[in-house]
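BUG: 3D viewer hangs when loading the predicted structure for this chain

Environment: internal workstation, default settings.
Expected: structure renders.
Actual: progress bar stalls at 90%.

Input used:
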Amino acid sequence: MVVERNECSKLSRLILDQSGNSLDKLGKLSVKELMKFKGIGEAKAITMTPAMELGKQRASEIPISKPVITCSDDAFNVLQPISR
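Structure tokens produced before the viewer hung:
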């Protein structure tokens, strides 16, 4: 069965709503808990579980800072170490 995009969007909102709009709680749902939602079978729930875990790991990483370049001296200081 093909699930329409609108149905997927509604299902996603429903699952997030049932998780208290908490991505942390959503990520802790088990395969059996996900399967309670109409339209999510075992295969889909098993696929969703590692994707949510990956999302949690990504969220916990410290973002890489990007240098702010406002003048030619800033650009030189950023590029000079890699031009050797």
